[in-house]
Amino acid sequence: MLHGKHLINGSKTLVIVFQNAAKPLNDAIPDIYSGKVTQEEVAEMHERYTWMKFAERVPKADYFFVKDHFSSVYGWYFMDHGTFIHEAFNDALTTFIKQHGYKRVIAFGSSKGGTGALLYGVMNPLITDVLSLIPQIHVGRFINRLCPDEKALFYGDTPGFEKQVDEFLFADKLYAGYKNTKLYLYSGIFDIQFEALLRYQTFLTKKGIASELLLNRSDERHTRLVNQYTTFIYGALEDVIDQSENRMDQQAIKIAPSVRVLKEQ
């Protein structure tokens, strides 16, 4: 269930890096669906870990780059061919964290990795901090945009599963184990699910769960909100590791208790 690459630096702080969907994997979806691309080839694509350069540059934490090889492609870390796997996955994360004796655990990722980081950040009480970049809040809508002809890979033939997937993050039972996790949500006003993220932040607030939006006002969209702003993201992640906000204070202005705006766009 839990597979990936574990970088051990002797720290009691762990950064769990949930992977985004790389372009070669997305481009291969039609051929994966038709069987032209084998699962062995898909497995090789999952070996290309993102954010490795940051981990090598900042060895003050341990890192676990966790794979998302479900549904023959990926499954946002919570579904596999029409079956929800989040409870088993969460149990595996808990076991991993306890076996290695980590005292602080940071969930981090972008795009579908941002969704995974957010999901387990609110589910797992051992996760202390979350930095979620451009997460997909309504996964079903994203699938319909990305690969409407191949969506059976994700949903199988389970009745009603697509609707459940699309509203998954709004299921009350996910929050039963929530325990004071510090949540940072990074996005931009032109991201494809920015308005959905604002609604989700309101949903969290109504549950008494605090979060802080790191807002990019540029006209960049989705992937470019990440790869054009790595200086800010690296600084924010290092701040979370250090339990500081010094780098974020230098690069963003807090305009409300729950909103910080990037200075440079």
Task: Characterize this entry briefly.
With 265 residues, this protein is an alpha/beta fold. The protein has helices at 23-27, 29-34, 39-45, 52-57, 86-100, 112-123, 139-146, 152-155, 161-166, 194-206, 223-227, 230-242, 246-251, and strands at residues 4-7, 13-18, 62-66, 104-110, 129-133, 182-188, 212-216, 252-256, 259-262.
Please specify the SSE layout and strand pairing.
Elements: E1 4-7, E2 13-18, H1 23-27, H2 29-34, H3 39-45, H4 52-57, E3 62-66, H5 86-100, E4 104-110, H6 112-123, E5 129-133, H7 139-146, H8 152-155, H9 161-166, E6 182-188, H10 194-206, E7 212-216, H11 223-227, H12 230-242, H13 246-251, E8 252-256, E9 259-262
Parallel strand pairs: 2-3, 2-4, 4-5, 5-6, 6-7, 7-9
Antiparallel strand pairs: 1-3, 8-9
InterPro entries: AB_hydrolase_fold
